[in-house]
Amino acid sequence: MPHNLPKLPAMDDIQDLLRFELDEGRIWMGEERMILLRSSELQGLRRELIESLGMDRAKGLLIRMGYIAGQLDADTAKRLRPDAPLFDVFSVGPQSHMLTGQVKVTPVKLDLDEEVNSFHGIFDWENSFEAEIFLAEYGVSYEPVCWTQIGYASGFTSRFMGRQILYREQGCVGCGEKVCRIEGRPAEEWDDAEELQRYYRPDRIADQLFALQSQVTSLRENLTSEQSFGDLIGCSAKFLQVRELLAKAAESRVTVLLLGETGVGKDMFAKALHQGSPRSDKPFVAVNCAAIPKDLIEAELFGVEKGAYTGADQSRPGRFERAHGGTLFLDEVGELSPQAQAALLRVLQEGELERVGDTRTRKVDVRLVAATNENLEEAVQNGHFRADLLYRLNVYSVVVPPLRERIDDVPDLVRHFIDKYSSLHGKQLQGITDRAMAMLRAYQWPGNIRELGNMIERGIILADQGGQIEAQHLFPHVGAQQGDTAQDNSAASAITEAAERLLQEGCDLGSLERALIEGAMQRSGGNVTRAAALLGLTRATLDYRIKKLRSA
Fold it and tell me: Can you give 247-264 as a three-state secondary structure string?
């Protein structure tokens, strides 16, 4: 790339990423939630870090903070301008730096060659906020002070080039210069590379803090395990109510019936009940009654003797015998055949069973937990389920709430699934964007926790290594609905033509907004949450706009 650089391109596309939801108290920069801070607040934070950690360690911490921010913006750059000249794509970094009010950037020299993966860049910085707050606090420095900003430049360029690029300030306003000048090269080209690189690695005190954090996390997990009752995850009021009911039942032998929609995690609640009981060191055996043919369910539950039927070439115990001393979980218990229901009733009443094809009775000590998403009382009325068996099962019933009624549990569940599936798929991610989390909280979850787990696994697969799960990874329609010109030029062209036609016809913005909202509501069948997702809005924002339109 030549040294006589063109001017930075227009930054309308970057500005369009910045959205204010003032009624919701949110500011967005693409997928990331932003906040406005006074420079005096950052000045105070910087002072506290320096006084607490020392100048050198505070410098390293702020450099690493900037580095992470630069990496995230590098991911945005290539998505935002995929077909633009290389200089324009790279300019997203400097321009994002400017848009957030940190510094004015002027390219001086930029040799950038993707084919041979080489880089050398020189930039001038004016109006550096870090230089200003340092001078106000400490006066002229003996060394450069734009720490967060130098970390940002290194993080952005390193992610952009796919190799470590480090910057240093060759001149700094904080040192009395008229302008800050930075220079970036591959790490190995710096004579003092090791000195520069150490600021990008956690130092000793950070390691100590991380070790303490690990210990705290471990203690918290142990505490949470006790409080959450087994491996259950949640903090919402309805979750806590269910947890308390199960904790009270755990110490007894009472038969428990778990009621709830498909996918709410009844199996996990059953396992937690077992883990919290005196039987926790004994077997936990789970059976999905709907997955076993009705003519084989009795043999599967109660066992079979050799020769009982064609194919029974050897005797084997059933699930009840395997669960002896422990807990048997019967999921979808409403699917049991009439014969299996009768045999199950006998086990509950007498504590004994007979294998299929056998006349001997066998004593079993089993704690039964049943679950269903059906209305068993209606099944009794319809003649599909025994009334006496229902009375035996329904001694202690617990309704597991659907996920839409425990939305406050979504963030904890998301973190759990990210940890689980990141490890499974060999991905290292920086979590999930704020916008994606907001959309997850606004969603109604017809498939409950099972759907959430599947959605997060999909997001992990689609997310870039080292990146974040974004809204379009979870809700594929989001990107398309927003008219992503980089991905679909034909769609963008159609939108432009439609806009021109509407303007010619005298359509104003208010009318267009009303039409879009009405169209989204019709398409979603009147479901505000789904309509909001179609429009790329939060439910609260769409509610506000609907009220505004109705009052107009």
Answer: HHHHCCCCCEEEECCCCC
Closest CA to 209 of 69, 419, 60: 60
Mean pLDDT of 267-274: 93
Determine the pLDDT at residue 229.
59
- CA-to-CA dists, residue 397 to 54, 254, 317, 328, 390, angstroms: 59, 10, 29, 16, 11
Q: What pLDDT, on a 0 to 100 scale, did the predictor assign at position 293?
A: 87
Q: What percent of the chain has pLDDT over 90?
A: 51
Averaged pLDDT of the chain: 85
On whether the CB atoms of residues 343 and 302 are closer than 8 A, the answer is: yes
Categorize the per-residue pLDDT at 455 as very low, low, confident or very high, splitting at 50, 70 and 90: very high
Alpha helices of 178-203 — where are they, by DSSP H? 193-197
Q: For residues 104 and 97, what is the distance between their CA atoms, to the nearest angstrom?
A: 8
Do 323 and 368 fall into the same domain? Answer: yes
Mean pLDDT of 146-167: 96
- The residues, any chain, with a CB within 8 Å of residue 232's CB and separated by 6 or more, are 239, 243, 265, 268, 269, 272
Same domain, 420 and 385: no
CA atoms within 13 A on the CB side of 319: 22
Q: Enter the tokens of residue 144.
A: 């450069």
- DSSP codes joined into one string, 417-471: HHHHHHHHHT-----B-HHHHHHHHHS--TTHHHHHHHHHHHHHHHSPTTS-B-H
DSSP symbol at 112 = E
pLDDT (tens digit per residue) in 42-90: 999 999 998 888 888 899 999 999 999 999 999 889 889 988 999 999 9
329 alpha carbon, distance to own chain's centre: 30
Are residues 526 and 387 part of one domain? no
For residues 372 and 450, state if they share a domain: no
Q: Binning pLDDT at 50, 70 and 90, where does residue 204 land?
A: low
> Number of helices and strands (H, E) in the chain?
25, 14
Q: Which CATH number does the domain housing residue 275 bear?
A: 3.40.50.300
Question: CB–CB of 304/355 below 8 Å?
Answer: yes
Q: Name the pLDDT band for 434 (thresholds 50, 70, 90).
A: confident
The C-alpha angle with vertex 500 and arms to 20 and 84, in degrees rounded to 5, equals: 65
Q: What local confidence, expressed as pLDDT, does residue 2 receive? A: 43
368 touches 328 (CB < 8 A): yes
pLDDT bucket at 311, cuts 50 / 70 / 90: low
CATH code for the domain in which residue 60 is found: 3.30.1380
In a domain, 3, yes or no: no
Asked, for residue 522, whether it belongs to a domain, the answer is yes
What is the residue range of 89's domain? Answer: 12-201
Instruction: Indicate if 237 and 189 belong to the same structural domain.
Output: no
Q: Is 435 found in the same domain as 332?
A: no
Residues 140 and 241 in one domain: no
Tell me if 530 is assigned to some domain. Answer: yes
| Structural domain includes residue 131 | yes
Confidence of residue 500 (pLDDT cuts 50, 70, 90): low
Rounded CA separation 67/70 (Å): 5
